[in-house]
Structure formats: structure tokens, C-alpha cells
Amino acid sequence: MDWKDKRIWVGVLITSIFLISGCSQKEPEVTVDQSYELAHFNYTKDNETFTSIKYEDMAPAVEWIRQNTPEDAVFLNWWDYGHIIRGQAEREAIVWEPSKEILFTVARYAAMSNEEREKVECPQCNPHDRILDVVNALIAEDASETIEIMSKYNATYLLVRWEDKHKSYVIFLISDKDPADYVTEYYEPKEAALSTTLFRAINSEDIEGFELVYSDDSVNIYQKS
Predict the structure, then answer these.
(1) Exposed/middle/buried for 191, CB within 10 Å: 0-12, 13-18, 19+?
(2) How far apart are CA 222 and CA 225, in angstroms?
(3) Which residues contact 85 (CB under 8 A, 6 or more apart)?
(4) The CATH number of the domain where 165 resides is what?
(5) Among 42, 88, 126, 98, which residue's Cα sits nearest to residue 219?
(6) How far apart are CA 224 and CA 184, in angstroms?
(7) In whole angstroms, what is the distance from residue 79 CA to residue 75 CA?
(8) Domain that holds residue 199
(9) Residues 36/110, Cβ–Cβ less than 8 Å
(10) I need a labelling partner for 109 at 20 to 30 A (CA). Which of 7, 8, 29, 187 fits?
């Protein structure tokens, strides 16, 4: 599979996630293939109801967060896990949904006219500048940049999941960097990726300004010093 094919695959993946997480189009009606079902959960926060994929492997980390972090704790994490943090761990995350701008980069929506795009609704999308802040915090090669962005949102915890190694393709893509400069076609990190906060956290490394406070086979959590 070459990088062009991977770009298409990523578009399909993101499209599926949007169908799950609340983005809709007035016309035509969208039909979701029910042949492959993922476990979901619902929760209500600030008078809004959200639906999210349930990551069973994150259950121990969720329990640790609930037992060991302040109730007003804020997390920096890729948006896929924001609902887990907000709805199950009962803490706050900088982002928990993608942005509408990301939606329009997906193949299905990219070819739409402006008139067609106006019919697309994503009421729970996060602002794109917040997504970019999280991206820049994760791909920063200097941890002080990560800390600066976290401080902007009063975040004191950084959470990464082992699967972020694969999702890093999308993260680098959103940052307007060529993912091929950072990861191989099998999602193994190249030298340029290994110095980023994201991969240092995935690899449980010491990160200046942070302390690794929780680790299991799926999740690493760092606390800002």
C-alpha cells in the first residue's frame, strides 16, 4: 500500500468516526453499514449528550484517573480519547471531537461545493485552532512547547495510547507535514518522529518538565511538573 492509498484509507477512517460522533448532512440521508459494530457509550455533560467509541483497554487508566487526579484536572490527548476522559473518567480534555475543517479534507466531503458544505452539520465539532494546538503540542520536539500549549488550557496531564503510533500519520498530516518524513508505511517511527513529545511519551521516556505517573500496556499518563 503506497502513501496515496493510505491517504484514502485515512479519509475513510475519519469519515466513519464522524458518522459515529455526531456530524451529519441534511441531504442525502447517510446509511451506516451495521456489519461491523463497535462498542459505544453515551454520557451527558453541560446539557449535551455525546456518543463515543468505548475503548475497553483504557478501563484501568480511567479508574486510575478517577482515583488519583483532581476533579478539575484537564488532559492533553488526541481527540479520540476526549470522550473517555470526559464521560468515563469525569475529567476535562482540551479536545474531544475533531473540527469541521478536518471533515472537509475527507474524500467524501472534499469534492463538495460550498453550497453542499453549508448543509453539513457538526454541532459538537471542536474549534480547529484547538485541534491545531493539540497537534503542535504532540509533535513538538521541545517539551517546553508542549508545556506552553498545555498551560494555555490549564492542562496538567498528558495522555497517550499505544495506538497513537498508528494515528500519528493523521496527526502529522493535519500539521501540514509529510507523514512519510516521520513514519514508515508500517507506522514505525523514523528518527524525526522519535524526538517528538508524542513518541517520547509512547515510549515511556523521561520528558523534561513531566513525570510519568501511570503506565500500562495501553496507556501512559504524564503529569506536568
Answers:
(1) exposed
(2) 9
(3) 65, 75, 77, 91, 92, 93, 96, 159
(4) 3.40.50.12610
(5) 88
(6) 30
(7) 10
(8) 3-28+37-224
(9) no
(10) 187
Higher pLDDT, 125 or 141: 141
Domains contained in the chain, number: 1
Rounded to whole angstroms, the Cα distance separating 53 from 21 reads 8
Number of alpha carbons in the 13 Å side-chain half-sphere of residue 3? 11
CA distances from 109 to 12, 120, 173 (A): 11, 9, 17
Residue 24 φ/ψ region, left for φ over 0, alpha for ψ in the -120 to 50 degree band, beta for the rest:
beta
For residue 186, which amino acid is it? Y
Cβ pair 81, 55 in contact under 8 A: yes
Mean pLDDT computed over every residue of the chain: 85
Q: Are 170 and 160 in contact (CB under 8 A)?
A: no
Strands 219-224 and 157-161: antiparallel
Task: Kindly list the distances between the CA atom of residue 202 and the CA atoms of 56, 98, 207, in Å, as whole numbers in the listed order.
Answer: 19, 21, 11
In angstroms, rounded to a whole number, what is the distance separating the alpha carbons of residues 72 and 200? Answer: 26
Instruction: Kindly list the distances between the CA atom of residue 93 and the CA atoms of 52, 79, 113, 128, 189, in Å, as whole numbers in the listed order.
Output: 14, 8, 33, 15, 26
* Alpha helices (runs of H) in the chain, residue ranges in sequence order: 3-20, 59-68, 82-83, 100-103, 107-110, 114-117, 128-139, 143-152, 164-174, 191-194, 197-202
Structural contact between residues 173 and 179, judged by C-beta atoms closer than 8 angstroms: yes
- Range of weakest confidence among 10-19, 23-32, 46-55, 208-217: 23-32
Q: Which residue do the cell numbers 464521560 mark?
A: 87
Nearest to residue 216, comparing CAs of 111, 80, 64?
64
